[in-house]
Design brief:
Length: about 300
C-alpha cells in the first residue's frame, strides 16, 4: 500500500526504531520488516481527503513543494535533451533512416516547453500533484492510489477527466500494481509513497515500472536500442539518524530512509541516477526531502 503525501517532522519518528538500534542485537526486526499495509490503510482512511490531510497538517508547504518539483522536472528535461542531441549529432558517415531524416526507432525527446504525452502519479492520494503540477506538463495523467475515497476527489475535475486529461485511475497499492505491458509513460512520479513499501517491494516496483517508460523495447537485446526517453522520479524524506540509518514511524507504518539506502535500492533495481537535488524552502522542523531522476542502466 502506498498513499501520498506525508510530511514528517523530525520529532515524529522514533530514533529507537532506527536500523542502528536493530543492529545492536539480533532480537529486533529490521526497519522495513515492521511495515504493515493494513495499518497504513487504517491510518490513511482516518485522514481527511484534502491537502491538510495529505500533508499531515502542513498544507502551507504544498506551493513550495510543487514549485520545487516543477523546477526539478524542467532541469531534468533540459539536461537529458542536451545529452540526447550531443550523442545523436550525425557524423559524415551517418545516414538518416527515413526520408524525413528522422530515426523512427529512436525518437527525439520533446522540447522542454512541449507537453509530455502521458505520465503517472504513484500513491496519488487526492491528486494534489496531479492537479497542481502534472496536468500542467502532460496531456494525460494516470494515477495509482489504494483508497477510493481519495481518488473520488478527482471527480471535481470532471471537465478535465472528460477531456481524457485524467486517464486511468488504479485503486491499488504500489506493491501489487502491475502496469499493462504496452503502457508507456514519459514520467512516473513517486512522492512520499515509496516509504510505505519494504525494501524488496521498492526494488520490485521500480523494476516493473521501468519497463513502462517511453522508448522501452521489451524484445531488444541492444542496450543502445533500448535506451528510454522517460524518467522515474522519486521524491522522499531523508533520515537524519546520527548513524545514517533508516527510521521507522509506527504512526503510519512507514520508513524514512537514508540517501545511502535510496541509492542502494536504485542500484539493485537496475536504475541510474540522472540528476538529484534537495528540496529547498521547507521549514527546518521537517525532514530533508530529496528528488531523484532515474532511468534504466
Amino acid at each position: 500500500m502506498a498513499t501520498t503525501d506525508d510530511v514528517h517532522t523530525q520529532s515524529d519518528l522514533n530514533p529507537a526504531s532506527s536500523e542502528h538500534a536493530n543492529n545492536l542485537g539480533n532480537s529486533l526486526p529490521t526497519t522495513d520488516s515492521q511495515i504493515s499495509h493494513s495499518q497504513q490503510i487504517s491510518y490513511w482512511d482516518a485522514q481527511t481527503a484534502d491537502v491538510d490531510g495529505m500533508l499531515g497538517g502542513y498544507p502551507q508547504v504544498s506551493r513550495i513543494d510543487l514549485q520545487g518539483s516543477k523546477n526539478f522536472i524542467a532541469k531534468v528535461r533540459r539536461l537529458t535533451r542536451i545529452s540526447h542531441e550531443t550523442n545523436s549529432s550525425p557524423s559524415s558517415t551517418t545516414k538518416p533512416s527515413s526520408a524525413s531524416g528522422k530515426d523512427s526507432a529512436n525518437p527525439t525527446p520533446p522540447k522542454t516547453n512541449t507537453k509530455l504525452n502521458r505520465v503517472l502519479e504513484g500513491g496519488a492520494g487526492i491528486g494534489r500533484i496531479t492537479t497542481g503540477l502534472l496536468l500542467n506538463i502532460a496531456q494525460t495523467v494516470d494515477v495509482v492510489e489504494p483508497l477510493k475515497k481519495f481518488t473520488d476527489v478527482l471527480a471535481q475535475y470532471r471537465p478535465t477527466a472528460e477531456q481524457g486529461r485524467i486517464g486511468q485511475i488504479f485503486n491499488s497499492g504500489l506493491e501489487s500494481w502491475n502496469p499493462a505491458p504496452d503502457c508507456r509513460y514519459d514520467i512516473i512520479w513517486n512522492q512520499w509513497c515509496l516509504n510505505h513499501l519494504t525494501d524488496k517491494q521498492v526494488v520490485e516496483y521500480l523494476q516493473r515500472t521501468s519497463k513502462t517508460l517511453t522508448g522501452y523495447k521489451p524484445d531488444s537485446n541492444s542496450e543502445k536500442d533500448n535506451e528510454t526517453l522517460g524518467w522515474i522520479m522519486v521524491k522522499e524524506n531523508l533520515s537524519t539518524d546520527d548513524w545514517g540509518e533508516d527510521i521507522f514511524d509506527d504512526a503510519d507504518s512507514s520508513v524514512t530512509r537514508s540517501d545511502r539506502k535510496w541509492k542502494a535500492l536504485f542500484e539493485e533495481a537496475g536504475l541510474k541516477i540522472i540528476k538529484m537535488e534537495l528540496q529547498s524552502g521547507f521549514p527546518k522542523s521537517l525532514y530533508p526531502v530529496k528528488m531523484y531522476a532515474l532511468r534504466p542502466k
